[in-house]
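anyone seen this seq b4? input:
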Amino acid sequence: MAAAAFDAHQYAKRLIDAGFSPSQADVLAETTGEIMQELTGVAAAVEKLEYKMTAEFEKQRAYIDKVVAEQNQNTMRWVLTVGAAFGLIQTGLLAAIVVKLLF
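predicted toks r here
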């Protein structure tokens, strides 16, 4: 992020032209410059944290996608196993009924 350059001398001149005394203008220009530097530092820190958070979110999203895919596979295996078991039970019952009816 590019910070705009702050010209304290130019700012003090404008304050003097607006009616401030030279000492007031100097103090205001100096403190405004300090605030601008601090804001620039805070903005850089926020940008850095934003980058870290984005990376962490992507990492967590990849992990969640992996876990969901594994759970989908496990669910599919379970459904197929239960379906096959019910199919075998039905076949066994049907065979038992046929045997009972024939003999």
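The chain has a mean pLDDT of 93. The radius of gyration is 37 Å. kinda curious what u guys think
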